[in-house]
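User: My advisor asked me to double-check a structure prediction for Cytochrome b561 domain-containing protein before group meeting. I don't want to rely on an old file, so could you generate it fresh from this sequence?
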Amino acid sequence: MQTLRNARLWLFLLLTFLGTSMARKLQGDSWCSYLMCITAIVNGTSVTYRMTALAQMGWMAIGFGTVMQDSSMVIMWPNSDGTVVMSQRTADGLVEPKPDRSPPRTASIFMPLTAVTSPSLAFTVPKNSDTNQSAIWALGVTSPNTANPDAFLIQHEDSGAFHLNLLGELDDSVTTSGPTATGLPPSASSTTSSSTTTSATPTSSSDPEHGPDDGKPLTKYDKLIIGHAILSVIGFLFILPLGALVARWGRTFTTRWFNYHWISQVVFSIPVVIVGWALGPLAVAGQGKGHVNDAHKILGFLLLPLYLLQLCLGSFIHFVKPQNGRLHPPPNFVHAAFGIVIIGLAFFQVRTGFSVEWTQVTKHGIDLDLVSNIWIAWVIFLPLLYFFGFVLLKRQLKSERTTVFTGIDSPPPYSVQEPTPASSTGIRSLLDRSTADDGTHDMYSDTATASSPSSQPIEMREVERPLPVLLAASR
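Assistant: Sure, here is a fresh prediction for Cytochrome b561 domain-containing protein from the sequence you gave:
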């Protein structure tokens, strides 16, 4: 009995060793970019390719060739109902690939290595003579979300070329336990169990099966991106809107609203916006990536000059006031409308930042639902608060007219600056009299003094001016 037990134990250990050896000697190769990983597993007469997204994934593709033109491509995407679609296409240039009805090698979806939640998509093609294989890759962030394999594809987020050594060996870091984890078709497995698989990520610190790796320390790139995000949100979604609200509501209650508006938009916003904006290109340059290759980066480069132009326009309106002009000249309205447009673009920019850029360039997850809900609430609350200020528009206009035409207080910075009459010089200046005149007094009379408004009017007789007489010089 003891001998039988020992024999079973040795048999178990032998089978375990053989299974481990087989798993460690899978033929193929793997490769990773910053957006996706690709693993090729050679199995006799076929090759299984597994594509795993490291960030947000709409569709993924592999093309067999060195450039996009004339490459035979296999494109896959998941649908919202959990199904997976595969489309074989080719392109005659840098254009959207068209369906290929007669591809060189017909591919088929390999479901054992396909997991939409990973997200991983896999397919199998017949093996050809390639040993050192040249291929291209692409990843798009928007799924066609249709079962039609000929569906329109929104342009990829990024793409590139890579090489695979199909004569290489994949070690046990490529797969986990279980026959389907080996990447072999079910018919080649010794059992029918179906354990989950993990992707090959030899050059990535993220495990695609379990999402972004938040346990890793922040890299310099991560810190730059986080600083860029925080400062940009504070500058564009808090400080700039605060300055707009001060301009809208403050002028209704005080003529000194411009002081607070200026402090907000210049003193506070300039350092925060400039530094936050600069961290973005600095992070991209550190990774060696393109600067204006997507909507977020393009709009980011436009926002800063628009913001600086707005500051210049506000300064011009403040320092260059029209003489005897309208209370609110056209540049004032342009300044207000331009500010609303900039804040609106900033909201869109922040949206693309956390929903697209963050998920693609970092391995640290965020609660997208929570962030999105906060963004939606803020984008609704701020416009309502701003435009509700127009309810007090009549009060504002009345206050401004009173200020300008009665001289009760100093004119607000955006009001018309009344010119000083020429009669305020000479005797008026010496007597410190105000310039108010109801038209019934002569050029020397006043109704009140600036220092004592309650003083009695000064009456002076009108004097006829004789014609000037030229006196001859004394001899």
